[in-house]
Amino acid sequence: MPELKVFTRDEVAKHNTENDCWIIIDGAVYNVTTFAQLHPGGTQILLELGGKDVTDDFYGLHKQEVLVKYAPRLKIGTLEGEVSQAALPAFGDLSTVPYGEPSYWMGFKSAYFK
């Protein structure tokens, strides 16, 4: 992982274009410029949210493990005076993200398999 820098929210807000797109998730700054084309939800959503704090939007659709997976490549720094509020879930904890876990873990049975 590259050396992490400390940014202000104003600095991050300037990076909101197709060729330079940063986002804030839970006090950390991520450069998603090159990742935008690979994003499963499409490029447009990342470009619309570029330069902003997307913590609530991110955790509404993703599990914490996504950050653990991509942070080494995308995280470029942290926000000045802010610390992470997210805690990694314990092994076996169910996610609150809709469709984030297989339905059988939540006790639902498939209508197609008996």
UniProtKB/TrEMBL annotation:
It comes from the Eukaryota. It comes from Rhizopus delemar. One of its GO terms (molecular function) is heme binding. Pfam families: Cyt-b5. This is Cytochrome b5 heme-binding domain-containing protein. Transmembrane segments: none annotated. Belongs to the cytochrome b5 family. SUPFAM superfamilies: Cytochrome b5-like heme/steroid binding domain. Keywords: Heme, Iron, Metal-binding. Gene3D superfamilies: Cytochrome b5-like heme/steroid binding domain. InterPro entries: Cyt_B5-like_heme/steroid-bd, Cyt_B5-like_heme/steroid_sf, Cytochrome_b5. Residues 4-80 form the Cytochrome b5 heme-binding domain. The keyword Metal-binding applies. One of its GO terms (cellular component) is membrane.
